Amino acid sequence: MRERRENRRRSFSLIWLGLLVIVIFCGLFFPEIPNINTYINSNNEHHLLITKVKIAGDAPIKYRYNHPEGVVISQMIKRTDTVHAYVNKDGVIQMHLPSKSATDSHSKINTRYIQVGIGEEDNAPDFAKSMDNAAIYTANLMHKYHLKPDATSYNNRTLYSLNDLVHSKNSANLDDYFGRFGYSSMQFYNLVSQYYYNKAITPPFGLPIFERLIMVLKIFGIIGGIVLIIISIFLPSAFWKRWWQ
Length: 245
Prior knowledge:
Layout: H1 2-28, H2 36-42, E1 50-52, E2 70-76, E3 85-88, E4 91-94, H3 107-110, E5 113-119, H4 124-144, E6 159-161, H5 162-165, H6 174-179, H7 185-196, H8 207-234, H9 237-244
Parallel strand pairs: 1-4, 2-5, 2-6, 3-5
Antiparallel strand pairs: 3-4
């Protein structure tokens, strides 16, 4: 009886060990990206899908200087028509033409800037894709309206986050959202500039190889954990006795 309990204890120990291996390899190698812009540049596909949605009652907007002065980026938990366009990992949904008013309460922003809302993503690869889409769309807008990306100068700035212009506890903080993925507004502005000036995109050497290696390790780790569990359940007690001795 005592020997049977010992064998059962050892079997359960290996089951827990197998489960631990699976959890470690699923958690340790989750799809985290060391640098979002580097990851974006390592991927060859940069296609942007734009879907236009017709909103009833679109009102023309009179810009202060008869044209947009820049682009304002905001974080959006869900899609609404309070921005000109909503961007996520799947592409751009254009709610209003830039020549029409985005039904937003911030009237000063309405008469000066194109407003682009970025939807929330819950993992790094999807976040990177949404940043890529937003940067391409923003760069295209700037070309269309003869603006140059500028996020630093006082008089000629053309890129803002909503938090730069509206200080409200009710407004979602774009930098807080970016910070979840180790990203920042300045990195996004740099990505916009890259597309605007059509800079060459060169994948960093070794990054795709590293990603494949991580995936292989993850698969082998999970398989190893499953094998440990199966062995601990189905091997006869005699094996455990010889193995532990």
